[in-house]
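User: Run a structure prediction on this.
Assistant: Running it now.
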Amino acid sequence: EFYEYSKAFQNVFEFGRRYKIMNPEKLRGTYGKMIFLLQDAMIPQIREHLEFNLVSPIKTVYSVLESAGVEEALKSEWISTATMEIVGDGKSRSQIQREIKHKESALDMIAR
């Protein structure tokens, strides 16, 4: 009965683990409880009852690009420009627009 929801459970817990990696200051108590739950879910008797593995690999940018066969995009000379943050503090609208266009051009170069 749990198996039909296996992907949903795996996605929720994978998302929670990834969120904690990106935001270490958040979920302080809750994350520990989740990890205990995931550890308990690895006990053979519980895995047998669930009929699936609750833990799935964490998705990273690299793993997603690798599965698509385009991991070389991370080695592009344009990657830093394409992924840079555009901050508007004290900049004119035209300067921000130029930065956006430059970033879009970098994304186009990587996509080729």
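The helical segments are 6-22, 28-41, 44-50, 61-68, 79-82, 93-111.
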